[in-house]
Each structure stands twice: as C-alpha cells, then as structure tokens.
Amino acid sequence: MRFQSNSLERRSGFNAKYSRAACGGTLTGQNGLIESVGFPELYYPDNLLCEWFLHGPENHYLTITFEALDIQNSLECANDYLIIQENGATGDLLGRYCGATIPDPVDTASNLAYIKFVTDESINAPGFRLRFAASAEECGGELSGTVGTFSSPNYPNPFLHKLKCEWRIIVPFGHRITLTINDMNFGSSQNCSLNYLAVHNGFGENTPRLSKLCGMVTSGTQVKSSGNKITVVMVTSQDDSEASFRITYTSDEDAVCGGLLLSSENGNLTSPGYDGTSNYIDNLNCEWIIQNPQPSITTIYLSLEDFHLEQHINCQNDYIEIRQGDSNGDLLYRLCGHRTRLEPLLIAASQIWVQFLSNSENTDKGFIMHYSSF
Ligand SMILES: [Ca+2]
Ligand SMILES: [Ca+2]
C-alpha cells in the first residue's frame, strides 16, 4: 500500500484500521492443532474465511483427526463448512464437513494439506478442533537369508498412500530365488499402470523385468530369478490406492546361470541352454565371478569360442559386461552382436565379474567362452 500526494489540492487525509486475520495461517512441523476462533468457550463469528496450510516433513503423509466438531448444519454444508484438501489449495477435496457428527480421521497423500473454514452471515455454533500428525511409511530393504518373507507396510491392513518401495534379495551364488505370492490385493486391475509390483531379475530396476503384478493376484503365483538376486518394487500412485501383499521367497533351486568359478580349474561359461543352434531366452540376468585362488597369478584368460548375441549399436539390448573385481568394478568390456574373429581376452586381474543380460525381445544362439589362468 502506498500513499502519494501531488503539488495540487490538499484534503484532510485518511485513517484506516488494520488487524491480523483472526484465523488461518501456515503450520509447519510433525504435528499441530487447529481450532475455530474462540473455541470452545465462544461461538465462531459470521462471515469468516479462514485458510490453514499444513506442511509436514518431506516424504511423510498427514493424518488429520477431528477432536471436536459443531458447525451450523445445512444441506450439503452450504452455509457454514470446513473443507480439507490434500497437496495444498489446488489439491483433491478429501471432505466437506458441517453439523456435529465427528468424522473419521483422514490421511493425505503427501506432506501438504489445506483446510478452509467458511461461515455465512447468520447462525453460528461452537466450531471445531483438529489435530494433524505426520507419519513416514517404512518399507523396502535388503534381505539376505536363504528363505524369508516380506510384506507391504501395515500388512494385513491395506496400504493407502503414494509410495515407492524396493526390496532387494540376495542368496548364495549358484541358487535361484523363487518368490511366492501368498496374498496380494492392489484393488482394481484397471489401475495397473498406477499401482503394481514389478519383479526384476537382478538388483535394481535396470535389470530385466520378469513380471508386473497388479489387481488381485492368485495366491501361490510364483516368479523366479535366473540367478541369486531379485528385486521387488512396489509402486502406489494414488492416495486412495488399496495395496497389500505378502511374499515368501526360497532359494533351494539351482540357478539357471551365474555362480562363483575358479580360474585355476579352467572351464566353459555359456549362455543358459547353449547348444550351438537354439536361442537363449528373454529377460535373463546371469552374473559370474571368476576368481583366481592363487594371488601370485594375476591374469585371467577368456576366449570366446562362439558368440552370437542380439545386435545393437551400443549393446543396450543383450550384452555381456566384464568388470574388474565385482559388479561395482571398472568396466573392461561390453560385448554384443556377432563375433567371428574370436580374439582372446587377457585380463590383468585376480578376480573379474561377468554379466550376461538379455532384454524382453529378440534373442540369438548365445555364447560359449573358455576361462583359465596361467
Ligand atoms: Ca452460519
Ligand atoms: Ca534381446
């Protein structure tokens, strides 16, 4: 506001009163309390428009609980009313309230909420008192037992917030993981793009996706990794998505591929099912460690006897990666396509990691390579 006068006429001026809004504001933190003006001793005034902005910690959701409610009752709460919206002033409406019946608590999808209290020009009542509390959902993690169970947050109660959780399972080399769905209900299967479980053949979402599960899944449904690692990602994208699951895993079956090999023992490494004519399958992830048990010998020798993987200019589809040490080591080779000149690979390392990955389409005959050290 600015007052400005020029060089012409003079007048008596102005006198304005100001005061802070009697209601509303921004509440930041883990929890808080909101009341109507004068609650509980006095009735709220007429002609109010009060707005509260609730701001909980990141990655939390808010539970808003009514401790008291007594607002002028009207058809469709048209006269005096309280509304709660999630995600702030432009978010979805969670409820519109009036009368004197205490509603159930409401949960928001995110850490933000907006509350508005509006009254008309006549008839009032004691008002309301609300509390909000922020909660974080704990989920995901790494499991390394040979058998185990994991489930959605708050299982067997349905999970009701937007969330992404990742479970990574690792079992000893040479074993594959069998996941068994004991129970899974992700609500309507029309929402498969929004609410689902994705199972990946290896660690992380960059490994081939074995399955995408959603809706109601028959108890006993199984998904198997090819090697000793698997990842389960749970995605819920709507605030009211119903999601609950319980999965058991075992690891008594032999791996399809991958394992720990000793270079001193000289042997062959092949794509699963390699016979020189038939093709490997889609969505494989095979991880081998080739280790030299004698530290004095630090060279590992790999010769490609036959090599036919799907062609791709950058080896993005099906490929072999060879790294020094383990999966986090320096990348030495990334191979794909057809190799007719089978040059031997001499690698100056006492341990290497070899990964073969196939994507969801187009396969070829695969490969056979010989490993040794001398
Ligand atoms: Ca009123
Ligand atoms: Ca492929």
TrEMBL record:
Pfam families membership: CUB (PF00431)
Keyword Repeat tagged: yes
SUPFAM superfamilies noted in UniProt: Spermadhesin, CUB domain
Limits of the CUB domain: 23-135, 139-252, 257-374
Disulfide-bond pairs as recorded: C23-C50
Keywords carried by this UniProt record: Disulfide bond, Glycoprotein, Repeat, Signal
Superkingdom assignment: Eukaryota
Xref: PROSITE patterns: CUB
The keyword Glycoprotein is assigned to this record: yes
Listed name of the protein: Cubilin-like
Protein source organism: Python bivittatus
